[in-house]
Write the structure tokens for this entry.
Amino acid sequence: MQVCVIGAGVAGALLSWRLAQLPEVERVLLAPGPATPADATAVSGGAVRAFEISAEQRSLAIESMAELVSDPRMRDWAGFVECGSVYLPADPAPLPVAMAEIEAGLPGSAALLDAAELTRRGWAGLDSSVVGLLEAQAGYLSPQRLRQSVLADLVPRAGVELLPDGAVTELQANSFSLAGERYHFDRVVLAAGAWTGQLLREHGYDATGLRTKRIQYTVHQASGALSTTFVDDLTDLFGKPTPDGVLLGLPTAAWDVPPAGGEPDLELSRTAAAVAERRFPGLRLRSAARPVTAVDCYAADGLLSLRPVSGTDDRLFTFTGGTGSAAKTVLAASRRAANQLVESCRNRLEPQPTLIGRSAQPS
């Protein structure tokens, strides 16, 4: 089996790395795509935890956290900082089931905090019925560092070829052109993040269910900041500690924007700061950096997962759609996707793989 992955963000890099370690995979081509100054991997805040509202998303997050905390090399590659996480769900109903699942995968990591304990830890304005989930083994990593570490290990491997940067053209179910050369393979995976839907549409494929959305946050110099990452579904505020302050953000409403992004929403940044100061009275925000923005690909189910593209006979797939938070699930999702690709070839009972590489004849 010979596979090409288009897109070298953290998702594409890890999928290629997983594939290169499977005995069924003979060759892996990785096409980074056009060079961009700041993709979603480069600017991601990288918060990681096991809890998610969705059971399927939670399964991926638990599996990813279990690998991260048990693998010293992966922790080093990712620059993982274990600082804990607090999550305030709008509806606490999923917490008992989630707690049991997290305990099975990460024993001793999770605990419930009532409103009084949250107040003692610096939260304010909480109704007495509010319950938070504390995860001791959570924290944050650097998706950019993880991508670079994975690529450094991947590229020298036998059977792996890193193609030059550039725009992919003439995309078909088992081939594409890049810089005037034609490449053929058994399976191609679009892991191009915000560019995935655009690539599909440009080449006549169905991109239904994939949308772009701008993500944004601001890093503030601050004192009195929380020591954990946090998500507050009651206000939509999210954040994490930084070496000299705090990262703060609110979800944007900027859907279906161009993949290259655009100007940040300064008012949204100011609103996030105001919400944070009300929620955490001990927080003292000082100077703020210019808001950081990027665009990512969102799928209807919110999952980073492998999806076959309609009309390609299971030869063309996408690997994206993680709603701007793929850092929490990418370790498990990339492993599952690699195995799914191998299974797709096995089920077809193909007699032999297509030769991979540059065409002898022009297309």
